[in-house]
């Protein structure tokens, strides 16, 4: 088991995975640990959908790409134009062909939803790395609008995807990118 500083140093954004399934019981353990994350007023608004079916992940990726490109064309979102070209590639999978995606979902009416889900996502990522797994928060995968796909994911009306987290066994763990020292604006004692 890693120490907490080791967990922090070893967590990386992984986008290249072994062709190996993540056992359901491991995902369940990770999600159980994610429920320990703090949330505003202990509201615990996060809900989860797990997809480990390659065909479903492909359909969800295609849906998300189409919606992103449509939003980009209508100036509803900003994208680097070169990235828009990548999204047009039918072989590009926004989930990087990960064997599993955990969608963190919550009610649109919760004012702290983004923060609460981000905290749960960080717990998922740290819990995963402690088990030798890699993860990456792929915001591009949150543009699911098709009612049938939303129903398949079990997303109730009034809820939205906040954080799609891809998870799997990494082919390799990249070196840490350079980190800057904290920029402390002021210390008042």
Structure, described:
- There is one protein chain.
- With 189 residues, this protein is an alpha+beta fold.
- The chain has a domain of 124 residues: 3-Layer(aba) Sandwich (NADH Oxidase), CATH 3.40.109.
- It is built from six helices and four strands; from the N terminus they run H-H-E-H-H-E-H-E-H-E.
- A four-stranded antiparallel beta sheet has the order 1-2-4-3.
- Helix 2 crosses helix 5.
- The longest helix has 20 residues.
- The N and C termini lie far apart (38 Å).
- The model has no long low-confidence stretch (mean pLDDT 94).
In short:
By secondary structure, this protein is an alpha+beta fold.
> What is the string of SSEs from the N terminus onward?
HHEHHEHEHE
CATH architecture of the domain at 4-52 and 94-168: 3-Layer(aba) Sandwich
Largest sheet: 4 strands, antiparallel
CATH fold-level label of the domain at 4-52 and 94-168:
NADH Oxidase
Mean pLDDT: 94
- The CATH class of the domain at 4-52 and 94-168 turns out to be Alpha Beta
The geometry reads as: globular
Residue runs with pLDDT of under 50 for 5 or more positions: none
Structural class: alpha+beta
DSSP strand tally: 4
């Amino acid at each position: 088991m890693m120490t907490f500083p080791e967990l922090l140093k070893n967590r990386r954004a992984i986008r290249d995975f072994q062709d190996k399934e993540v056992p359901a019981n491991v995902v369940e353990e990770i999600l159980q640990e994610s429920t320990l994350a703090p949330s505003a007023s202990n509201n615990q608004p996060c809900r989860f959908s797990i997809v480990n079916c390659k065909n479903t992940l492909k359909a969800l990726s295609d849906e998300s790409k189409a919606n992103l490109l449509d939003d980009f064309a209508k100036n509803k979102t900003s994208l680097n134009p070169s990235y828009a070209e990548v999204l047009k590639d039918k072989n590009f999978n926004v989930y990087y062909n990960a064997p599993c995606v955990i969608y963190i979902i919550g009610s649109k009416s919760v004012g702290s939803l983004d923060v609460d889900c981000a905290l749960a996502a960080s717990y998922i990522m740290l819990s995963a790395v402690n088990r030798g797994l890699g993860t990456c928060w792929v915001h591009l995968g949150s543009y699911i609008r098709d009612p049938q796909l939303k129903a398949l994911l079990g997303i109730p009306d009034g809820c939205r995807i906040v954080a799609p987290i891809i998870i799997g066994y990494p082919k390799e763990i990249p070196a840490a990118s350079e980190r800057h020292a904290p920029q402390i604006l002021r210390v008042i004692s």
